[in-house]
């Protein structure tokens, strides 16, 4: 019964809005919507929409190549060399992964716009403005934002290339360049995954599209969809057709990656006799070069945009330059009154509620996915498809599906919160799948044998054993929702903008100082909240729950009531 209810939830929250919106391109007059039909594709392949698709394809390919190359290089430095900063690289990847792309874009805009930080400091470089406010700037921001995906895709693959292969190549006199090429070929499945994920993320990104690309008058597909949704009159058929084309391009990349993955057996090199690889000594020159490269990466990805944000927030008038009388906190005071009291608290409330719902649904879905059944495989494909769907497309589906006479929910906080939970549900179920799979079915069988119902099993077994991964999944989901832009932009109730909308509105209104102050306050408060919640978890949750491990074999569970942990214990 619970499994059927979860499938209904997935159908209502994911399949219904997506299908009802996407079918508009094939079914004229669907739900009374004017237009529609296959003629929408002709309009999507012409004019502004076609230019946006071409630009997205160009940006996606180039940025994915850069991301895959940088991710492979960084994972090699961290996993296969003697570079002392290996752990620093790991930490940097997580910081980049958790940083919304539109915050980086806003930082660049505050820095290089006419009258921006560089102009105020007397460093106005028109050439730099031309580079950043154009395809090169969009590619740069997206490529660096998606390096963590490439890094995570390739880092674990290095352990599958044993050290004996390199030693054999050395014995046979293979040149270093040739040895490097052979190693890269063995990593082909991981590199293909890195490219495909980065490409899909670039195509579906709305943060850069609505900030940097929009200010550069460089149309991309996600902004073309947004423009069609807010046209006068609303053009749902064009938005639907453009979404289909965007999904088609993304699907081709994912299918090519899947084809490489199916041939992964040809790249298998790890055996029972494999030896750990010898770390490559970089030497003095190599270490210095690697450190300089890491410094440049940090500056371009975070440091320089952060400089634009910080300087904008603290200077009364940017044009007056750096001087003590020009330093002020008035923008922080204004942001605290207008931003934190409204958008920040509104987003925080929705994030707490939506993350809780997403984790609860994700836990149930992970339980279904862990079963070796055809239904589980079909559900897995559906959730993977939802993860690959750009957030803007799902949000557009919510506009169309829940703005009907029988479901008049559009423009309400309820729908915005539900969309947050629905968007986080697939990734949360994926995060919890591994821990849930480790729960042996004998635990539940023993509990039922001794008269415990499903609720008691959840309370006394599942939650204690999975407390740490559940908390981590909730924290990650809530943090992501706080800065979720596409759904916030399309679904927020009139007069109640959430935090991401308030931040982007400041940028679009050229009020960079107020936006920068609000951004710094919001990021600081979110980091403080994360630290406080982790501190509370470590001290309030029983220590056994935090260190709980799953029995390795069925024999670890004795057929005695004492084997069933009481509430509050592991």
Automatic annotation (TrEMBL):
Name listed for the protein in its UniProt record: Iron(III) transport system permease protein
UniProt subcellular location: Cell inner membrane; Cell membrane
Main location group: membrane
All residue ranges annotated as the ABC transmembrane type-1 domain in the record: 53-257, 344-531
Cellular-component GO terms for this entry: plasma membrane
Recorded superkingdom: Bacteria
Keywords for the protein's UniProt record, in alphabetical order: Cell inner membrane, Cell membrane, Membrane, Transmembrane, Transmembrane helix, Transport
UniProt similarity note: Belongs to the binding-protein-dependent transport system permease family.
GO term, biological process aspect, one: transmembrane transport
Gene3D superfamilies: MetI-like (1.10.3720.10)
Transmembrane segments: 56-79, 91-112, 132-161, 182-200, 241-261, 282-315, 344-369, 381-402, 414-433, 463-483, 517-537
Membrane topology: Multi-pass membrane protein
């Amino acid at each position: 019964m619970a499994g059927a209810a979860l499938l209904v939830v997935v159908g209502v929250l994911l399949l219904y809005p997506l299908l009802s919106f996407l079918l508009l391109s094939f079914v004229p007059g669907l739900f009374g919507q004017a237009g529609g039909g296959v003629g929408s594709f002709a309009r999507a392949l012409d004019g502004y929409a076609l230019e946006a698709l071409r630009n997205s394809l160009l940006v996606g390919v180039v940025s994915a190549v850069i991301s895959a190359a940088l991710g492979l290089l960084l994972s090699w430095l961290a996993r296969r060399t003697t570079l002392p900063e290996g752990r620093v690289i790991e930490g940097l990847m997580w910081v980049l992964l958790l940083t919304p792309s539109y915050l980086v874009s806003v930082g660049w805009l505050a820095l290089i716009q006419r009258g921006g930080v560089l102009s105020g400091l007397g460093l106005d470089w028109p050439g730099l403005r031309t580079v950043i406010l154009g395809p090169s700037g969009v590619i740069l921001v997206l490529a660096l934002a998606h390096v963590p995906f490439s890094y995570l895709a390739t880092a674990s693959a290095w352990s599958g290339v044993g050290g004996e292969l390199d030693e054999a190549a050395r014995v046979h006199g293979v040149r270093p360049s040739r040895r490097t090429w052979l190693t890269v070929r063995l990593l082909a499945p991981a590199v293909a995954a890195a490219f495909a994920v980065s490409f899909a993320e670039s195509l579906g990104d709305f943060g850069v599209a609505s900030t940097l690309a929009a200010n550069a008058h460089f149309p991309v597909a996600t902004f073309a969809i947004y423009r069609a949704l807010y046209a006068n009159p609303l053009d749902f058929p064009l938005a639907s057709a453009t979404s289909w084309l965007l999904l088609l391009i993304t699907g081709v990349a994912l299918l090519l990656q899947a084809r490489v993955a199916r041939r992964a057996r040809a790249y298998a090199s790890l055996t029972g006799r494999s030896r750990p690889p010898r770390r490559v000594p970089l030497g003095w020159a190599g270490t210095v070069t690697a450190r300089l490269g890491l410094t440049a990466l940090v500056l371009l990805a975070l440091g320089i945009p952060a400089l634009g944000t910080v300087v904008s927030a603290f200077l009364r008038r940017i044009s007056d330059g750096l001087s003590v009388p020009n330093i002020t906190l008035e923008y922080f005071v204004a942001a605290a009154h207008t931003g934190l009291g409204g958008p920040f608290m509104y987003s925080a409330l929705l994030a707490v509620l939506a993350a809780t719902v997403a984790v609860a649904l994700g836990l149930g879905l992970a339980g279904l996915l862990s079963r070796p059944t055809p239904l589980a495989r079909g559900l897995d494909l559906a959730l993977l498809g939802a993860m690959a769907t750009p957030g803007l497309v799902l949000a557009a589906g919510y506009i169309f599906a829940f703005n009907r006479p029988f479901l008049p929910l559009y423009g309400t906080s309820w729908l915005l919160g539900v969309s947050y939970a629905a968007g986080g549900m697939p990734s949360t179920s994926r995060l919890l799948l591994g821990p849930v799979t480790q729960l042996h079915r004998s635990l539940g069988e023993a509990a039922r044998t001794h008269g415990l119902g499903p609720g008691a099993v959840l309370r006394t077994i599942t939650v204690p054993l999975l407390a740490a991964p559940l908390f981590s999944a909730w924290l990650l989901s809530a943090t992501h929702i706080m800065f979720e832009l596409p759904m916030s932009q399309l679904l927020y109730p009139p007069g109640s903008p959430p935090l991401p909308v308030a931040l982007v509105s400041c940028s679009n209104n050229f009020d960079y100082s107020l936006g920068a102050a609000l951004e710094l306050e919001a990021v600081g408060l979110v980091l403080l909240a994360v630290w406080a919640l982790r501190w509370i978890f470590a001290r309030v949750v029983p220590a056994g729950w935090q260190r709980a491990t799953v029995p390795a074999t069925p024999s670890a569970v004795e057929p005695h009531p004492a084997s069933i942990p009481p509430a509050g214990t592991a």
